[in-house]
Amino acid sequence: MVAEVIINRGAKKLNRTFDYNIPKELEELILVGSKVLVPFGNGGKLTEAFVVGIKEKSDFEVKDIAKLEENLSNKQIALAKWMAKRYFCNVSDCIKLMLTPGTRNKNKEKRIQDKTINCVYLKKDIEEIEFEIETGKIKSEKHKKILNFIKDNEGATVPEIEMFTDCSRAIVNTLVKNGYLEIVEKKVERNPLLRRECEKTDKLNLTEEQENAYKCVEEAIDNKEYKQFLLYGVTGSGKTEVYLQLIEKVLNKGDNAIVLVPEISLTPQMLDRFISRFGKEDIAILHSKLSIGERHDEWERIREKKARIVIGARSAIFAPIENIGIIIIDEEHDSSYKSETNPRYHAKEIAKIIARENQAPLVLGSATPDIQTFYNATNKDENGNTKIQLLTLTKRANQSSLPKVEIIDLKQELANGNRSMLSMELYNSIEENLKQKRQTILFLNRRGYSTFIMCRNCGYTVKCPNCNISMTYHSYERKLKCHYCGHEEKIVTTCPECHSDKIRYFGTGTQKLEQEIHKQFPNASTIRMDIDTVTKKNSHEEILNTFKNENIDILIGTQMVVKGHHFPNVTLVGVIAADSSLNIDDYRANERTFQILTQVAGRAGRENLPGKVVIQTYNPDNFSIICAQKQDYNMFYETEIALRKQLKYPPFCDIIVIGFNSYHEAEIKNIANTIYQYLEQRLNKEEFKTFKPMPCPIDKIQNRYRWRMIIKGNMTEEANAVLNACLKNIYKQNIKDTRIAIDINPNNMS
Ligand code: ADP
Ligand code: ZN
Ligand code: ZN
Fold first, then answer.
1. Coil vs helix vs strand at 722
2. Are residues 572 and 638 in the same domain?
3. Is the CB of residue 239 below 6 angstroms from any atom belonging to ligand 1?
4. If you take atom 6 of ligand 1, which residue's CA is the nearest one?
């Protein structure tokens, strides 16, 4: 038999199959999905490869497969092939996501070893040993002591024996040599949950709304039916309780569950809710903060069917778990579910495929659903059906009320002579909160890297007339550019709307804010959370714990403070400038603003104490800010979806970005133009709008030039085939060092 393999290398030229002979002794073991070592290249160096097909014979003279390393399933290989097409990458890039972490190092010596301990067992029959002790054949007191100890504690380690019997390792070795004891190497699992203890909790009585939602999904579980649900519920409406009870249902049926959560909300608080319901034995967690060893062990625990609930960030969707009875994606709108590096997959798309294969429901949960998701949950086809079934929770489960939200117009503050970062209202509220010994969160909304300019007098920002996207300031050329269509304008020094000269560049930091707080409230304790302060393992968590346990007065932070934490003593949340996310050069600017403000507002007054939120902005009339104030998703959705439709943005089409980078700008221009012309000819003009290639907003990184071209249109199978064919043609050419990446609806447009 002959195996068709794909070599595990990034080179685009190698994204095809090679034939290798399957040696007799491996014939039964090698399957589609096996990871093998094959001699490859001139030196015949052993190289990792994946078997993607098996056939009778090859047309070529072929070498033998050298070694079998790991087996994946047919389904996984099929998924990897689908992903390679869909996300324009090598099959091997996708397979890597499905392999046990820590075993893909080419150099075998350097692999992560299973951590093992030496456990000591009796080798001779216990009655025989007792007989020998009685009859005096075993004389040494120390020997007797150890044998008696092991009799009662089989599996003890050598250090344990040393500690409890006061005998040395040498005596254990003698007993091993004489055939009384044996030492067995055992694998220990570096279970990241090992040291977590929490009390068991019972399920709560569901509210009527929760019960309705639960029943709908339960029906799909019972019928073994693939179906998508959107569990749309305000913050604190008890979505998690619904997840927990659905998982319990699935486990009782003997099936397993996957729960995806945003990387940043994989906090102990969140995990504790699952552990206290199901116990840690059944749960495996996967995320990037674990060591490779930990991830390796969790993966093995899943593979060995020891863990039945996988909780993890994006990549946990590839966990080797079978018989999946439900997949849950919490905070489904979160941008971390989309990978921004190769392969540029979306976990939601993968989850759909896996749920369908398993005939299991897929539950998407959010208080501020992705516009696309909500569209699919409410837009009816000609038969009156929606792609996703909508389940709504309108009330908070624990009866706490939503906080009071005030919007402060910063233009007015400026007119009143207040030039500080804090409005009078926010200043007074902080002062009051400090007096009451309650905690405050100050949030600085800063997404993306681009600088935008705005009139501090009237809130005017320069937007592209074609795209309705904030134009970005390029300091070198002293020009404003639209990052979508390339439209350029000269920089303005006076405001075209109100003719004032208060045009300013924006981009303020948390550090500056902290300094200002110290100046204005010298006695207040503060703690800061942003990219600079959150680096090492658990640090994110440490900051939050310190804030909570040491009752720090004020937490200052970026996006990171927004996600699902629960601080009973936080009664005030201040948003320093809501505008920065409104002016990112992205069609999702309104959506991001609404999501972030709604979530940050949800941090205040989660329990008995009433909460207050102060949102400072130069655009008090902006609908995403007003809707966030009212916590009215529906109103936001109606306005936003109309805009998207009018301007043709997702969900009415996809934004396809083809990115290029190279040391040689001439080569980029050349390749990009070839692609542009190819696509202009082959993509249907009615359905696709292809924009000319141009430099990226950040047009050079580490001496590599960056260009891109944008296509607006629906990413259909046909369009996908055209793009893949286009890439294939390009890779046939002699390319010096230009890298090409295609991304569908990327998070970051810089
Ligand atoms: P969400 O996930 O929607 O933000 P949570 O599941 O965190 O909401 O629930 C918010 C609070 O309400 C939690 O303290 C939770 O224990 C409580 N809760 C949830 N469901 C119920 C219920 N049916 N009865 C009483 N309390 C509930
Ligand atoms: Zn103005
Ligand atoms: Zn434009």
1. helix
2. yes
3. yes
4. 238
